[in-house]
Structure prediction request, 299 residues.
Amino acid sequence: MHEATAPVFAVVAPAFLSQFKDIEDGQLRTIFKRLGFSGMVEVSLFADILTLKEALEFDLMIQTEKDYMLTSCCCPVWIQMIRKLHPELLKKVPGSVSPMVACGRVVKRLVPGAITVFVGPCLAKKAEAREADVADAIDHVLTFKEVADLFEAARIDPADIPTDLREHSSFAGRIYAVSKGVSEAVAVTLDRIRPDKPIKVKAVQADGVPECKRLLDDLEQGKTTANFLEGMGCAGGCVGGPRSLIDRAVATAKVRDYAVQALYPTPIDNPYVVELLQRLGIRTIEELLEDQEVFARHL
Ligand code: SF4
Prediction:
């Protein structure tokens, strides 16, 4: 890592809380830097931006009590299930990249030549990062387990590592790591940006592949009245991902704690979201829906 000729960034999934034994969450950035990374970016900042986009898409797509949409972006297993089992529903999925892809793309725009390494609990992200239309974003995907092994091999001693935790994300982006989190994030953001919209988010969620399949079947058979359908491939959401290193209930509590401690309740209150969008040439939140290069995806 110290011999890399380009800056290397660790792009860390929102489920990272308390994943690494004896290491405080705030020490992670310092550790990555000691290993030779140029920096660490929390993907939750980009979950914030995608939440804003989803709330705007909801506002656009949901005009009557019969309208509905499926959450689009964060879980590749859910998206693959829709593609394979119910391709006719793809028109109800707003075209957005995942927060991981958004993060990788923005890092590479702001730091030309940067190498991006996603770190998370997910094996499916390894395949997602190689999908042709988003392969420009993430160079490598490591699981929490692989990174824990790296820390062990590097003989990291947490005792002499200072903490460096930053307030870059809102409640909304932080809560993505748990089932129902995306729905909660979009609902609270919609209320914030469109308080007068008469139709509110009426969400239903599924976590785990069998439940996701059941939800899609229910939708096809007209058995749900929800207008916002969220699916996560793992039981409990990403905190239950196959390479999560801690108990799912503990991980869920840690993520929720971190979310409620956020300084900003929604992405629109987060100055880092506003600044990032401006640096990308997106001057108003509505212009997010016009973007075709960074956050959009043709599903
Ligand atoms: S829910 Fe599971 S499969 Fe989906 S993104 Fe999270 S860890 Fe990956």
User: Anything to note?
Assistant: The mean pLDDT is 95. The CA atoms of residues 85 and 213 lie 8 Å apart. The first strand starts at residue 8 and ends at 12.
